[in-house]
């Protein structure tokens, strides 16, 4: 009996020793540096993990709002031009390009107006752009880069066949190049990160379409 109790005592003591020497696993720590995006035009930087704090974004400035409102007006004219193609263009690839432009720029106008609503800024009616966005009734938008004047639009509306194809490609190329100028302006003068992303997305699409239209004109 004494031998049995001694054996039990050794086992209990051994168990206690194991329990005492067992430590809680170390909580993994993240020692990787945190990348902090810079403001538009600035490079990103890195900080230690413990120094990370929620980013404070600058509110949109006048350049951001003007770009968004003007781009809706700019898009509205591009869509107006593209909607002429199904009945006036003769080349299948011109009709296809016009469809692509209309199908991409209509939802972009909606997205731009949603951004204006989110920031409590006046929206623009794409069906009547002269009466929205703080531009004033019957505003003259021909000062916008690449924007076609009334005489140019009248000539496009009167054209058909091969003449329409050439005129459409020439005017739309100029129109897209004007949009890229507007994008360059907001890249240097704007502050809103989302507007910068939108501008970049529009630029990618329109640069691709410019290359396509120049190729079609040179064919």
Quickly describe the structure:
The chain is an all-alpha fold and 219 residues long.
Q: How much helicity do the residues have?
A: 55-70%
Strand ordering within the main sheet:
1-2
Percentage beta strand: under 5%
Class by helix and strand content?
mainly alpha
Total of helices: 7
Alpha-carbon Rg, integer: 31 Å
Largest sheet: 2 strands, antiparallel
Q: In angstroms, what separates the terminal alpha carbons? A: 107 Å
Number of DSSP-assigned strands: 2
As residue ranges, the low-confidence spans are 1-8, 10-14, 16-21, 131-138
Order of helices and strands: HEEHHHHHH
Average residue-wise pLDDT? 82
Shape annotation: elongated
Q: How would you describe what is shown here?
A:
The chain is mostly helical. 62% of the residues lie in helices and 3% in strands. It has seven helices and two strands, in the order αββαααααα. The chain has helices spanning 2-21, 62-82, 85-88, 92-118, 150-158, 161-189, 193-218; strands at 34-36, 45-47. A two-stranded antiparallel sheet has the order 1-2. The model is unreliable at 1-8, 10-14, 16-21 and 131-138 (pLDDT under 50).
Topology:
Layout: H1 2-21, E1 34-36, E2 45-47, H2 62-82, H3 85-88, H4 92-118, H5 150-158, H6 161-189, H7 193-218
Antiparallel strand pairs: 1-2
Helix pairs in contact: 2-4, 2-6, 5-6, 6-7
Key features of this structure:
219 residues; mainly alpha; two-stranded antiparallel ribbon; 7 helices; 2 strands; 3% strand
């Amino acid at each position: 009996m004494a031998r049995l109790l001694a054996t039990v005592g050794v086992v209990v003591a051994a168990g206690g020793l194991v329990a005492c020497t067992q430590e809680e696993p170390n909580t993994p720590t993240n020692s990787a540096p945190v990348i902090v995006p810079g403001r538009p035009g600035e490079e990103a930087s890195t900080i230690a993990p413990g120094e990370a704090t929620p980013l404070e974004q600058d509110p949109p400035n006048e350049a951001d709002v003007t770009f968004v409102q003007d781009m809706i007006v700019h898009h509205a004219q591009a869509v107006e031009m593209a909607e002429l193609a199904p009945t006036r263009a003769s080349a299948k690839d011109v009709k296809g390009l016009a469809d692509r432009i209309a199908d991409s720029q209509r939802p972009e106008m909606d997205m731009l107006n949603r951004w204006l609503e989110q920031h409590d800024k006046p929206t623009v009616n794409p069906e009547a752009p002269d009466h929205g966005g703080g531009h004033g009734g019957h505003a003259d938008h021909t000062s916008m880069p690449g924007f076609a004047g009334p005489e140019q639009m009248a000539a496009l509306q009167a054209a058909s066949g091969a003449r329409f194809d050439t005129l459409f490609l020439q005017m739309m190329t100029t129109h897209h190049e004007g949009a890229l100028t507007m994008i360059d302006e907001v890249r240097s003068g704007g502050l809103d990160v989302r507007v910068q992303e939108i501008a970049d997305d529009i630029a990618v699409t329109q640069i691709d379409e410019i290359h396509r239209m120049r190729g079609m004109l040179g064919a």
